[in-house]
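<goal> How does this chain fold?
<body> The protein record starts here
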Amino acid sequence: MKPVRVMMVVAAALMPAHLLAQGFTRGDPVPAALPLGNEPGDPRLEMPSGQHLVSAFGERPVFSPKGDKLAFIGKSYGDAFEYDMVTGRLRNITAHAPSEGYLRVHYLNDGSYLLLGPRTLGKTREETRYGHIELFWMDAQAARAPVPLGRKVFEGLATSPRSNLIAWSEMTAGASPTTPATTIFTGRLVLHDGAPAIEDVQSILTTSDCLAEAQDFLPGDKGLLMPCYFHGKGPTGVQTKVLSVDFATKKVTEYPTPAGLYGEVEGIFPDGKRALVECAQDRSKGMDICVLDLDPVRARYTRMTNIVRYGGWKYGNPVVRPGGRMIAAQVGSANVADAGVGEGIVLMDLAPNF
């Protein structure tokens, strides 16, 4: 071995582990099946290189517009928390105001917050989730009580990185009482003498064959990326498709994923060319993160993680940090009462060639 090579090896051995970690890479193409394994252990304690747990509780993380903060829900129908990416400090941002709890938190471009939760609870968890979830606004200092905005929302929101433009979905009447539909709306959050309101509301798309959820704006806010849920189909009663809609033409595009797998699209990369997808054989038993190229003709769908090798564990709700070099996701048991429930927040560094 040449002296220079020896010096390089010794220097590498003396480097801190976090400097040696190259982070996650895009793995192999996603197969037609993602079977569970039975490897012993707790994946929260045995994380791969480039990944670390920043909170031992929590679900549904989102990055701030500058990427310097990370907000998440502590538990379903609980408080919202904020993690400082620089100092590592964690604070509760909703404990100052009474509530029935929240399911999601989002940042607006101006740094203020949007929250999703019920003002009143339904008779069942299902009734609450599908009929009582409202949209609230809270100031950037998290000093005021969240203010209801008068809109009921199906699942999540999309928030623009360019402005206070938002998109959301509402349950609407379908062809029959047993076949509900969803309508996607856009609007802008504005303040009038400190009072929030949603203005310039536009109806974008109504889906009756599946239930659409607003996920992410496409580059330039020219369209919307969204999952669409076909209930009563698929291995666990739910099948999903990855769709986008162009705001100008109303054209809907489908990005293919294996028909036999659950594939719910989540965070989009800043360039708009790829997105993270929750991928699973059976999401009620385990779930991983995959990466999908948003090209309907030359689809490239690869696997990023393999937590299902433990059996009964899942990653969920992955989002991309502004700049595209890091991912945040939730981790936890797959045996949960509702979709979206998590038991910890992880950060994953991405390799330079990701």
